[in-house]
Design goal:
It is built from ten helices and seven strands. The protein is an alpha/beta fold and 300 residues long.
């Protein structure tokens, strides 16, 4: 199953449940359609809020120490939660259920073309906030959908190889830049393990659990199993990499990531590590601060 199919199915289930709750509320209160509609919508939002809050709570149980410069007060913490919740709702309920992979080529592009890899449970729609910036800068780029959702990470490697080949053929370039969110960063590293780094200008990862995450224990699928802390697959991947390969990687992450925990799992020895604070896992792809830093990395 693709992420698009999964998200559409989940969205349908949520709407049906909200309708049933709304109907029950209207019956219980002897109220009309509007009251039932509002009651169902409120119930749906409260459930999604609870899920988001649970992710933050689970990640806090194995969180790494937050440096003093990135510690948050109550207002900033509330903003962090609100932004992550809002972006999670927007991505999962609107953007990604409708998204399709794209390829955009600019004849006068001065930078290497960019291949965008999404993370676990997502699809190409994750890059909805970045691709307009790439278009404005006339940077050729392509997005992929990594499917099935629960496949082993190595199963995505042929998809990446085809994406690299297609992007290089379309642009006439010799090397690509890979930008990857979350699990996508591990997919990029697995691809380099198989095909080498000769066609890679750079790899930039956002919120990638390079050493695993405690929340992977709650995920389903072979890929979730591979992302567990201390897993054999991650150790084997790290052991396969040379210093030259690591030097190609820039890891951008947040000390308040609510999916990658401990958050310093995103730090990769030998890579360029850029730490931020006050940004959740999904919101990394929509944060102006992160996108500014990403574009700066691309253009340097």
């Amino acid at each position: 199953m693709s992420a698009r199919q999964m998200l559409r199915a989940l969205l349908l289930v949520q709407l049906v449940c909200a309708a049933l709750v709304g109907y029950a509320i209207a019956r219980a209160l002897h109220a009309g359609f509007i009251t039932g509609l509002l009651g169902g919508a409120v119930a749906l939002v409260l459930v999604r809020l609870a899920i988001s809050a649970n992710n933050f709570w689970l990640s806090s149980r194995s969180a790494s120490l937050t440096p003093p410069a990135h510690r948050l007060g109550a207002r900033a913490a509330l903003r962090l939660f609100g932004e992550e919740f809002a972006q999670s709702m927007r991505y999962s309920s609107w953007i990604m259920p409708r998204a399709r992979p794209c390829l955009r080529v600019y004849a006068d592009a001065r930078l290497a073309p960019v291949l965008l890899l999404h993370g676990y449970g997502c699809n190409s729609g994750y890059w909805a906030h970045l691709t307009p910036r790439l278009d404005a800068a006339q940077i050729s780029h392509a997005t992929l959908d990594l499917a099935p959702v629960t496949a082993p990470i190595d199963a995505y490697v042929p998809l990446v190889e085809q994406g690299v080949q297609d992007l290089l053929a379309a642009t006439g370039a010799e090397r690509v830049i890979i930008v990857a969110h979350s699990m996508g960063g591990l997919v990029a590293r697995a691809w380099m393990r198989t095909y080498g780094s000769g066609r890679v200008a750079r790899v930039i990862t956002l919120g990638t659990p390079h050493h695993g995450t405690s929340l992977a224990s709650f995920g389903i699928g072979a890929n979730a199993l591979q992302m567990r802390l201390g897993g054999a697959w991650l150790h084997e991947l790290a052991a396969s990499e040379s210093a030259a390969t690591r030097a190609l990687i820039t890891s951008i992450y947040s000390h308040h990531d609510n999916i990658v925990a401990p958050q310093t799992s995103s730090e990769l020895d030998g890579a360029r590590n850029l730490a931020f604070g006050g940004i959740g896992h999904v919101a990394l792809g929509a944060s102006r601060q992160i996108l500014d830093a990403l574009m700066q990395e691309l253009c340097n």
